[in-house]
């Protein structure tokens, strides 16, 4: 999903939909009040905290520590979690200590990589955050076409390292998203139709399981866990590093955006739907119905073509004839630029609320329903986004990895943004929910990385499909107490 789309919307000034922060009773004798897995208050002794602090190479932050407020901040400021403890892990050993501590005390535990969880689940109130965001090493082996990437790395960092050798693997479309959460839930991006999901490109994963033990996983080492980590989200442990297969990509590709006025939406989307059904794997096109720069609504196509440069103009030609474009910025461009990896880092002060589901085609009925929703209840910050899938993603068997929903052509998302602090939460969430009520019946399955705070079992089961029973059995084996529950949660069975 596009960072541009997220950031371009002229958003209303409204308030954060902060979750109610659990009020902890003050603990006595220097003890630290914390929240247990069952929601009850725990009191952690100074000696226990001291032992953990001494064991870590990174810092252990409590609410009074310098850096605590920065460390607890997530991409989505709708969530203002206040954890009791943040373990800023410097390496796998720190992760092992932090997880062992959490398991021994039965502490509510969140795991944070890039912090881009849309539902704020990489933070928690009163619990422990195992924070790997300082673990930022990337090593590219250009001859073997492999990269070892620590779990705190952001997509733009990975892209830049790999592109120095003319290599890349599938990554999401916003450069400041973390590799960890994205890859564990699947990982959809501009070259995914050609090379598969991010998780399809994993050759090995190092993980610390709920008992605090380190495990290397691959096709030959702990293969069942390796299977579960490719699409099973954060359910099975804290990943410390990933090993990816790389491909020759660019560095110059062809892409950019082309915009049409919203008044042409019906015609443009219908024509697009026919065209995209037969598109080559090398062509990736996201679609957004969104506010444009001048405030008027537009239909924007965000394009990336990773095939032979000489063919690019012919391949995208039909996109230019869908109607009368407002703007056409399709041109040769470096892959890192299309990925936004060269953009300056931004602080996100827009809260976001999103609902999404997978679709197999953009039917005329769907087009009519979403244009109607956009038209009848215009909201300056509201948008509908389609993220492109299919191609190589669809050719992997649904049970080959934990990622089940292989047949989707698009991930359909309705979202809204609003400035915080402000009072926009109610109007924006209401707009998204009303749209979703009209659109959800067009969907078939959900993307784990769009998990919601209050997960409905129905959604979780539809995300994992027939892989759910195997995942639940593995969850019981590797995390019987459900320590890792702040995710699209698989219940141990
Ligand atoms: C602006 C934006 C653009 C996006 N674009 C795309 C896109 O193009 N393609 C796409 O596929 N998705 C996209 N997403 C969704 C994204 O994949 C998820 O939000 C993902 O969880 C982000 O990963 P993170 O590490 O940044 O998140 P975090 O918030 O750090 O973590 C999210 C969850 O991942 C798990 N997790 C994180 N780190 C670890 C770890 N080391 N070990 C085990 N579990 C861990 C935890 O369950 C955690 O709750 C986008 C999200 C945003 C906000």
Distance between the termini: 33 Å
CATH architecture of one domain: 3-Layer(aba) Sandwich
Classify the beta-strand content into a percent band. 15-25%
* Continuous helix count: 15
- Specify the biggest β-sheet: 9 strands, mixed
> In CATH terms, what is the fold-level topology of one domain?
Vanillyl-alcohol Oxidase, Chain A, domain 3
Bound compounds, each kind once, are: flavin-adenine dinucleotide
What overall geometry do the principal axes of the alpha carbons give?
Answer: globular
The overall strand count is 22
Give the uncertain stretches in residue-range form.
5-23
The percent range for helix content is 25-40%
Give average pLDDT, whole number.
92
Top-tier CATH class of one domain: Alpha Beta
Radius of gyration: 22 Å
Class from helix and strand fractions: alpha+beta
Explain the layout of strands and helices.
Layout: H1 3-8, E1 12-13, E2 32-35, E3 41-44, H2 46-55, E4 60-61, H3 68-72, E5 85-88, H4 92-105, E6 109-112, E7 128-131, E8 138-141, E9 146-150, H5 155-163, E10 167-168, H6 179-185, H7 192-195, E11 202-208, E12 214-218, H8 223-229, E13 238-245, E14 247-248, E15 252-261, H9 265-277, E16 283-291, E17 297-305, H10 312-316, E18 327-328, E19 331-334, H11 335-338, E20 350-359, H12 364-376, E21 382-388, E22 410-419, H13 425-439, H14 457-464, H15 468-478
Parallel strand pairs: 1-22, 5-7, 6-7
Antiparallel strand pairs: 2-3, 4-5, 8-9, 9-13, 10-14, 11-12, 11-13, 15-17, 15-18, 15-19, 16-17, 16-21, 20-22, 21-22
Bound molecules: flavin-adenine dinucleotide.
């Amino acid at each position: 999903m596009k960072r541009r789309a997220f950031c371009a919307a002229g958003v209303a000034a409204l308030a954060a939909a902060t979750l109610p922060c659990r009020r902890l009773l003050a603990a006595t004798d220097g003890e630290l009040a914390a929240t247990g897995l069952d929601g009850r208050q725990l009191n952690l002794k100074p000696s226990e905290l001291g032992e953990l602090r001494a064991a870590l190479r990174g810092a252990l932050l409590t609410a009074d520590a310098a850096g605590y407020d920065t460390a607890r901040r997530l991409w989505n400021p709708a969530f203002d979690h206040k954890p009791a403890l943040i373990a800023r892990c410097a390496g796998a050993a720190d992760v092992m200590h932090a997880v062992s501590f959490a398991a021994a005390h039965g502490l509510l535990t969140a795991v944070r990589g890039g912090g881009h969880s849309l539902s704020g689940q990489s933070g928690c109130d009163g619990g422990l955050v195992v924070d790997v965001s300082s673990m930022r090493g990337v090593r590219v082996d250009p001859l073997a076409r492999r990269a070892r990437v620590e779990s705190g790395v952001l997509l733009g960092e990975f892209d830049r390292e790999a592109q120095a050798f003319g290599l890349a693997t599938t990554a999401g479309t916003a450069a400041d998203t973390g590799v960890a959460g994205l890859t564990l839930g699947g990982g959809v991006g501009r070259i995914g139709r050609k090379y598969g999901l991010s998780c399809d490109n994993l050759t090995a994963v190092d993980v610390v399981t709920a008992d605090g033990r380190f495990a290397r996983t691959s096709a030959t080492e702990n293969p069942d866990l390796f299977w579960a980590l490719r699409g099973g989200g954060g359910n099975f442990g804290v990943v410390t590093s990933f090993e990816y297969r790389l491909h020759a990509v660019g560095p110059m590709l062809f892409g950019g955006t082309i915009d049409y006025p919203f008044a042409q939406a019906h015609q443009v989307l219908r024509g697009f739907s026919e065209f995209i059904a037969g598109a080559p794997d090398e062509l990736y096109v996201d679609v957004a119905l969104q506010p444009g720069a001048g405030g008027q609504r537009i239909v924007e196509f965000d394009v990336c073509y990773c095939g032979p440069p000489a063919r690019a103009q012919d391949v995208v030609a039909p996109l230019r004839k869908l109607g009368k474009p407002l703007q056409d910025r399709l041109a040769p461009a470096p892959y890192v630029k299309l990925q936004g990896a060269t953009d300056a880092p931004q602080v996100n002060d827009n809260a976001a609320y999103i609902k999404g589901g997978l679709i197999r085609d953009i039917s005329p009925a769907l087009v009519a329903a979403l244009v109607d929703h956009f038209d009848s209840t215009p909201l300056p910050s509201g948008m509908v986004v389609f993220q492109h899938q299919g191609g190589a993603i669809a050719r992997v068997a649904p049970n080959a990895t934990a990622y089940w929903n292989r047949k989707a052509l698009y991930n359909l998302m309705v979202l809204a943004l609003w400035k915080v602090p402000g009072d926009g939460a109610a109007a924006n969430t209401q707009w998204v929910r009303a749209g979703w009520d009209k659109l959800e019946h067009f969907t078939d399955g959900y993307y784990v990385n769009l998990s919601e705070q209050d997960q409905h079992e129905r959604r979780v089961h539809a995300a994992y499909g027939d892989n759910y029973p195997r995942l639940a059995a593995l969850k019981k084996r590797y995390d019987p107490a459900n320590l890792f529950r702040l995710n699209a949660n698989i219940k141990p069975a």
